[in-house]
Amino acid sequence: MSPAGCWMSRAGAEPFRYRSRGRNRTTAIAVAAYYGVLVLAIVAVEASVILMAVLALFALPATIDLWRDPRAGLDLDDEGLRWFSGTRHAEVAWGEVGHVRLDTRLDFSVRASVVLADGGRKIRLPYESTPPHKALEAALLARGIAVQRHHFSLIG
C-alpha cells in the first residue's frame, strides 16, 4: 500500500482503491494543541472563560470528526467510478464519463469533478473521497479516461 491510503496495481488498468478516515494523528494533535492554548490562556493570563469557550467552538467540527471517525473512499474498476463519504455515495459508469476535471485551488488543494458525456454536467467528488491528484490522474489515464487540469481556478 502506498502513502495516503492509495492502492494501485502496477498492471495499469487494475482496480484502484482509496480510503480515508476522519480520525488521524494530525487532526488530533492540532485539536489538542488548540484546546491546550485556550486552557493556558485561562490559567496563565486569566482570559475570560466565556471568550475562550466561544473560541473553542471553532474547533468543534474537527472534534466531531475525531469522535465520529467518518470513512470516505473511491474505487475505480472495470464497471466505473464509485465514491462514498459518510452516508453519501454515488456511482458513475465509464460510458457516462466524458472526462475528469482536476482543479487546483488557490490554497493548492485539488478538487475533482466528473464531467458527463451527455451535456457536460459536472459531478463534484467530495474532497475527503478524493485521493492524491497524481495517483488519481495516473489511475484514470491507465483506464483511458481523459483528464483535464485547471490550475488556480476560483470557481468551476
- The structural class is alpha+beta
- What is the general shape? elongated
In total, the number of domains comes to 2
Q: What is the number of strand segments? A: 9
Under the CATH scheme, which class of the largest domain? Answer: Mainly Beta
| Terminal CA distance | 32 Å
Helix % is 25-40%
CATH architecture designation of the largest domain: Roll
- In the sheet with the most strands, the strands line up as 1-2-3-4-5
Number of helices: 4
SSE order and pairing:
Elements lengths: L5 E3 L7 E6 L3 H20 L4 H8 L3 H9 L2 E6 L3 E6 L2 E6 L3 E8 L5 E7 L5 E3 L8 H10 L4 E5 L5
How would you describe this protein?
The protein is of the alpha+beta class. The chain has two domains: 5-9 and 15-20 and 72-151, PH-domain like (Roll); 25-68, no CATH class. Helices cover 30% and strands 32% of the residues. The protein contains four helices and nine strands. A hairpin with a 5-residue loop joins strand 6 (97-104) and strand 7 (110-116). Helix 1 (25-44) runs antiparallel to helix 2 (49-56). It is elongated.
Short description:
Helices cover 30% and strands 32% of the residues. It is an alpha+beta fold and 156 residues long. Strand 1 (6-8) and strand 2 form a beta hairpin.
